Amino acid sequence: MKEIQIRNYIRKIIKEQNEEEPQTTQKRGKGRYKKEIEAVGKVPPGELMQRLNAKKGAGDSDIKKLISFLDSATGGVEAMKIVYDSPKEKKDSHDRLGAEIPLSSIKGAAGTIPARDGRRYIQYTMEAGKKAGFIDIPPFVIEIFGKGVLIYFSDTPYMWNRAKNNAKKKKVANESVVDEELLGEPDESSQDEREDAEKDEYSVSANVAGVVTPLGTGPTGGKGKKDKEGDPRKRAIDANERAFGGGKVYSPKKK
């Protein structure tokens, strides 16, 4: 009996090792988007829906509403038809539902585009659809999925085919991911713009000309001749005491 159990256990391990890992979504990568892509985000929501010949999402479930809206938004005009194939329903290993939009393999003037750009266009389409009242569904994320785009219901990014207990770790590891991928965040600037702004802030002090000396001292750093008001080092100590609420500098007594 034990031998049979051991054999079954070994078969189970071998089977698990041979099974392929379920496909997950990918990050968009760094770099700015093209100006023509970002221009789409500046079009009024109602006007963009009209340009795409989009229709309100219909159906008796959230996933059906999502598929219905995406089918009209990506198939209403020739320019979108060339870039995107018809959306199809997907379910991951943890029963999350979503809609996959494959990028068309057709090449030409408006032919195949990178998945990164394809995701950005869909992001603006979904944002406009939500603001214009064309789609009313629970929180969702829009991510790159292979050579296409995946929209699925989740309040945490990068969870497709991943266990739920990884959600907290993901938020702690990279809070900015939520701002970038989760629709509905108030900050509409791109991650690259925020990074550039942070770099500019960090570099301000480095661009200041001259000698950096202790707080309250002059260019001599507290060294040199005494002036009329006393020792430069004493002036620095006094300035620090005033800046920090009158605190005194601790000096151990000499033995």
3D structure, described in words:
- There is one protein chain.
- By secondary structure, the protein is α+β, with helices and mostly antiparallel strands.
- It folds into two domains: 22-188, no CATH class; 213-245, no CATH class.
- 41% of the residues lie in helices and 9% in strands.
- The chain contains ten helices and four strands.
- The protein has a four-stranded antiparallel sheet with strand order 1-2-4-3.
- A hairpin with a 5-residue loop joins strand 1 (88-91) and strand 2.
- The longest helix is centred in the N-terminal third of the chain and has 17 residues, at 2-18.
- The chain is extended and about 70 Å long.
Question: In a few lines, what is going on in this structure?
Answer:
By secondary structure, the chain is of the alpha+beta class. The protein has helices at 2-18, 35-40, 45-51, 62-75, 78-83, 115-131, 167-173, 176-181, 191-203, 232-243, and strands at 88-91, 97-102, 140-145, 148-153. Strands 1-2-4-3 form a four-stranded antiparallel beta sheet.
Averaged pLDDT: 75
H/E series:
HHHHHEEHEEHHHH
In angstroms, what separates the terminal alpha carbons?
82 Å
Total beta strands: 4
Query: How many strands, which pairing sense, and closed or not: the largest β-sheet?
Result: 4 strands, antiparallel
- Give unreliable regions as ranges: 170-180, 184-212
Strand order of the largest sheet: 1-2-4-3
